[in-house]
Structure formats: C-alpha cells, structure tokens
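Translate sequence into structure tokens.
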Amino acid sequence: MFYIDIEFRLYILIGMDDLASFFLEPARSLHRRYEILRALCVDNLTARQVSDRFRCSVFTVNAMKRDFAKQIRQGVMPEFFLSPSPGRKPREDKDQLRDIIVSMRKQNHSILDIKEALDARGYQLSHDSIHRVVTEEGFSRLPRRTFLERKNSSVVKLDAPRSKAIDWEEELGKTYHCERSLGLLAFLPLLTRLKVHKWISQAGYPGTKELSSLQSIMSFLALKLSGYERFSHDDHWAMDRALGLFAGLNVLPKESTLSSYSYRVDRQMNRTFLKAMLKSFMEEDLFCGMMNLDFTAIPHWGDESVLENNWSGKRGRAIKSVLALLWQDAQSGIFSYADAQVRHRNQSDAVLEFVDFWKKGARDDLKCLIFDSKLTTYENLVRLDKDGIKFITLRRRGKNIVKDTESYPSETWQTVSLELPRKHPKPKVHDSTVYLTKLKHPFRQLIITDNGRERPAFLITNAWDWPVSRLVEQYGSRWLVEKGISEQVDFFHLNSLSSSIVVKVDFDLTLTLAAHNLYRAMGIMLAGFEWETSKSLNTKFFSNGGSFEVKDKEIQIKFKKKRHLPTLMATLKEMGDVRIPWLENRLLRFSHLTVT
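Result follows.
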C-alpha cells in the first residue's frame, strides 16, 4: 500500500497500473506540462497523439513546445520541480552551549537567567532553544520561588573585560546585541555636529596610558545620558558594548577609574569646556541671550563634611552642601554656565564672573539677566547697569514698602494682559522710578498685584524701553530654570554626591549640564517633543535595545521596534550621513528590527 499526497488529497494506489496513472493522468498543471513535453521530445509522439492522451487541443501542445524551445534557446531553465532549500547550519558551539545550560540549570537558574547570561557572553540563543535543551536533559520545572530566592539564584558573576580602545580589525564583521543602551548611539551624529571632541581637546582634560582624554570624557557622558546614578553601579553597564562603542571603547571603564579621574581636573578645564560648549550652541542659534539665573544647594551626607551650610528650599532648612550657580537660556532651556565653587564670601559676585565668562567666550549679545533678590547685591546691580547689561530681579520686600503700596492712587495702576497661559492673566502693575537704599542710582520698579499672591511683587530693572507686559512675562518664565534644576536632580542625580571635594562636584556638574543640553538639543529637533524632560526623552527614544555590526567603513545599528522610533529615525535621516571622528570616521547606518 502506497500513500501519495497530491494537492492535499489522499490517493490509495494498489498495484503498478494505478502507479502508472499518476504519470499518465497528472493532476497538477506543471506536472501535466512536463509529461506533455516529455512525450513530444523523448517518446517522439506527434502533437495529435499527445493531445489525445492528455485530452487537450493540438494548438495547446504546439504552444507548449514553442514556449519550451524558446526558453531553452534563451538559457532559461523551466521550473518543473521544487528545489530543496538548505536548512539551518548546525552550530559549531552546540555542545559548549549545552554544557553551559546544563551547568546553570543544576544551580537552579531559570531559563530567563540562563538567557541573560548567554547574551552577556555574546551567544544568541532563543528561550525555546534553552527550554528544549533543559527538557531533553530531563530537568523538571523549578518550584515556585520567593522574590529573594529568585534574586539570589539569578546572580551570575561574569568577569568583565578590561576597558581598552576598540581593535577595529578584530571587531570587523562581529554583531553585538544590547538590551537598553543602544539608543544612545543616536546622539553621536549630534555630538559630531556640535564638535564635542573639540570641546574636550580645548579643555585639556587629562588622559591615561590606556584611555585618551576623549575616551574618558565620553565615558562620563555616556553614563550621564543613560541616567545611571552612581559609578559604583558598574555591574549594570560593565559589559555593555553599546556604551563602550559610544566612547570608542570595547566597554566603559570601571568604578575605580571613573571615581579617581575627576580629582585630576581643575576648575579652569571645566570653564574652558563650558566656553567651547557655549560657542557651539551659539553657532546652532540655540541661545536668545535672555538668561535665567539661580542658585542650587547640592547636599552632601558625609559624616565629616567641610562644606558650608546653604539654604535648601526643597527641604526648608540649611544643610551642608555645595552652592552651585546655574545659567539657563530662557528660550531653549539650555544651560550655558555652571559654577560649583561658589562660597559665601563671593556669592554676590558670581553674576559678575558669568558676565566676564560670556563676553570672553562668546559674543557681546547678552540681552537680559533674570534672577531673584538673593543672587547679588544692589551695588552689583549698579555695576551691571553701567556695563550696559539689562536685568530683571526682585526687590527685597520690607514692611514699609508693602504698606506704601496701599496709598498709591488707583489711576497710577494699569491692568496688563499677559499672552502667556497663566491662572491670573491680567495683573495690575504700578510703574515708577526708585532710588534704592544708600544708592544714588535710578532703577525702574514694577509693583505687581492681582497675581495670585497675598503680597505684591516688586520687580527692579534697568530696561527702561521695554513695555510693562514684556517685563512681567519675562520674569514669569524664570520658573524654567527651577524646572531644569529639578530635572537634573531627578534624572541626572545631581544630589547623589559621593564626595565633599568641591573640584569633583564641579566636574560632575559640568558634565551634567552637557548631558542636559544634549537632551534639550535633541528634543528641539524631535518634532512635537520640544519641551519633554530628559527623563521622558530617554524613556521614549533612547532607552532601547537592538544590535550593531562593525563594517569596514560603517557601523550598522538596528533598533528594536518602539512606539516613537519613527520620529527618531526621521530626525536622524534629516541629519544626513555623519562620520564619527573617534570611531575612525565610520558612518552610522540606522535602521530598525522587526521585533520589539
């Protein structure tokens, strides 16, 4: 008894006569055509005989013969039979992988744990393949475990490779898979466009015998952009090839290297770095010249802190902390300057130092400074006015000046309509000229009521030619700098200090500003996400996995599918082809995988 499947129908053929009918009465069209041509060319039957045997017209037989002869003359092989497709090549490391899986299963590791360990070692194996090996070896399902038991059993210690510059010949043709940090490689075209490598060289940051200054600073930037809290968490990223590629390394340096590096950096290096960064962002027209200023207290929780006590508005008390001054563009939200070496004795002069920094490092187009009453003294306001620098600040409210506002005639007050969306869009404003205490210098004073506050606000400015509405709106936007500071605390972990050494804090703050600005620049380019926070941008766009492969003149990067990935891909396409200097001028080719 023979079973032959023809077009999903089961034929039971008994005897040789029935077998012959399979060839003499073909059911499939290609099989029928083959038998007709064979009868003509091999059996030398006439067209009439063939048409009678296969019950078709003579014209059909002649047409088949004509088309067949034409294909043969043209060298085209007619497809009568299916060619078997080659199967998957057997893995050369199959036995080695089986030994690893069996060994880890004996230690009660789950399939997910085994998969994670194999990925870290560079093996690409699916969960189904691991499950098949476990089943074939006779292992039963693991019993239900508590969270603590799962955590303890999933600890697989792997020796991380030593950080070194990428050996491009050795890496050629290799593919690496990454689970989280591959999305950060989308920053590389922007970094090249802003000439970040020149910021680092101009700053004169130190290098080591094995790592250049560029590789060292790029390692810090990679961790900042990733949102990692402390260098001591290096077990999370010590084997991440994508982060290593970001800095031109195989993997990033470990905790000891990163923690000790900043002690070799001085304030002048950070200042030069900020100056170069400011110049690059100015060339991209990302500064409008309106600057929001504010102090922030970066706390230190050490037992023996040598730091001064500074007021922390978030905690409502004075704490041991580093007092840092931040300057932010009112339009783009990009920070232009930071100084973590502010002490009580020079706190009021910090604004003058920034003005000097701006004029020397950029161009003379500082339009206006916006800050609160505690940032500087009235004497320094006079100096700013004489230097031709406009400012808007608050006047310190005393009991007498608040009481005097009640005696102002109603006709001296004007109602101002603000264009910004506010809860109180039409405050009342009193515009006048005042001479501050012990100063024989005139300033413009705006007293603002009906703004949702119990007491009126007193603005002091030297912008005599600005309309009242513009002054009120501009000072109202100062909350952006407070938002930026809270963002740095939240995502970049600005308050997570591990040292009371001010030099180290200043270096950390400088790179925090650089990372924040890079997120702001990317947000501006991503249509519809201009005012997303760094944390939100990281979650939606840059915290993504995938794979990358090193080619001779390019690096192919494939992202996993993600909801907002098309927006990022469109932005990268607009940037065009960019060669990355610290990756031996290789092009980055971005695409996406078909999996999530």
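Note: The chain has four domains: 2-73, 94-153, 166-364+499-596, 372-477.
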